[in-house]
């Protein structure tokens, strides 16, 4: 019996048009899937219903078709699968690993500033540079929290990192691979993220939870994404362990930088593939520029 082929995926968010950084990621997935005889899936990560719009989904499809990347027919849209994420979140809540937090960003900043003043030491930050949550709501009585939720107060659901690590009980790690399928084990350190947000009142999941559940449900075996998401993998590996899900192999490709040394990003209005196409640039030229002649 032949082993199942490996499964790769490209998973953009339709909150803006694709740029060269997305093209690099999509083409890297395509090249590695071809090299290893794997399947290539497209997933649309549109949990943010206020920023993700249908016309941007259509734009993603047009840009990828122009690049000539062939995905398996059909694609998964996260906004159509909130029940899957709610189910996973419910499993974590029943184990006492999730708690509601009612702190605003300003309240968190104030709490961190107060602790820095009291200790004379800088407060720790996560790999993205944001201050770790100081745990202000961690000891909130369950009936109090339930009343505030019922009253419609804004809240998020946070992973109790200390409890989650205790439940995991084992050193966590994952395996990275390269284009020659050489593999190396890497230790995971999810504690550096603190009590991460897993869902919000208005968005019933987070990137961390949704991507973990999706990769398992879609049978993804090889996750290929930029180095900017390498640290987030620590959280995903922890969630995989807590939910009894498989851990894929990982590959982190280089990032493209602009003239200021910043990575290309929609938030920085990096030039989109549609703009390049309108300027007469061909898909062949893009492939050659990115090293996929």
What's this model, at a glance?
The protein has ten helices and ten strands. It has 293 residues and is an alpha/beta fold.
Alpha carbon gap, first and last residue: 35 Å
CA gyration radius, whole angstroms: 20 Å
The 3D shape can be described as globular
Largest beta-sheet characterization? 3 strands, parallel
Structural class: alpha/beta
Mean pLDDT across the residues is 95
Strand content: 15-25%
Biggest sheet strand line-up: 1-2-3
Number of DSSP strand runs: 10
Salient structural properties:
293 residues, alpha/beta, 3-stranded parallel β-sheet, 3-stranded antiparallel β-sheet, 10 helices, 10 strands
Description:
The chain is an alpha/beta fold and 293 residues long. 38% of the residues lie in helices and 15% in strands. The chain has a three-stranded parallel beta sheet with strand order 1-2-3, with helices on one face. Helix 7 crosses helix 8. It has ten helices and ten strands.
What are the SSEs and their pairings?
Elements: E1 7-10, H1 20-35, E2 39-44, H2 54-67, E3 76-77, H3 82-94, E4 98-101, H4 105-119, H5 142-150, E5 156-159, H6 161-168, E6 173-177, E7 183-187, E8 197-200, H7 207-217, E9 222-226, H8 233-243, E10 249-253, H9 273-278, H10 283-290
Parallel strand pairs: 1-2, 2-3, 9-10
Antiparallel strand pairs: 4-5, 5-8, 6-7
């Amino acid at each position: 019996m032949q082993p199942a082929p490996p499964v790769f995926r490209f998973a953009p968010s339709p909150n803006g048009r694709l740029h060269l950084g997305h093209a690099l990621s999509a083409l890297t997935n395509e090249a590695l899937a071809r090299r290893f005889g794997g399947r290539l899936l497209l997933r649309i990560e549109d949990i943010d219903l206020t920023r993700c719009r249908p016309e941007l989904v259509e734009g993603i499809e047009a840009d990828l078709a122009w690049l000539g990347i062939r995905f398996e027919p059909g694609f998964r849209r996260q906004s159509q699968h909130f029940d899957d994420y709610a189910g996973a979140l419910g499993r974590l809540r029943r184990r006492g690993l999730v708690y509601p937090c009612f702190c605003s960003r300003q309240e968190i900043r104030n709490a961190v500033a107060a602790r820095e003043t009291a200790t004379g030491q800088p407060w720790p930050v996560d790999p993205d540079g944001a201050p770790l949550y100081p745990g202000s709501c961690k000891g909130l009585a369950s009936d109090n929290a339930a009343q505030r939720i019922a009253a419609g107060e804004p809240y998020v659901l946070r992973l109790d990192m200390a409890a989650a690590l205790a439940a995991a009980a084992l050193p966590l790690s994952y395996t990275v691979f390269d284009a020659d399928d050489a593999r190396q084990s890497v230790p995971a350190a999810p504690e550096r993220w603190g009590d991460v947000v897993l869902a919000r009142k208005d968005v019933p999941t987070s990137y961390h939870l949704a991507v973990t559940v999706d990769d398992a449900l879609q049978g993804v075996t090889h996750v290929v994404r930029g180095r900017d998401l390498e640290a987030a993998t620590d959280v995903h590996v922890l969630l995989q362990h807590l939910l009894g899900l498989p851990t894929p192999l990982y590959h982190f490709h280089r990032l493209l930088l602009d003239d200021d040394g910043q990575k290309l990003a929609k938030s920085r209005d990096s030039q989109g593939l549609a703009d390049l196409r309108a300027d007469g640039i061909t898909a062949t030229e893009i492939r050659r520029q990115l090293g996929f002649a």
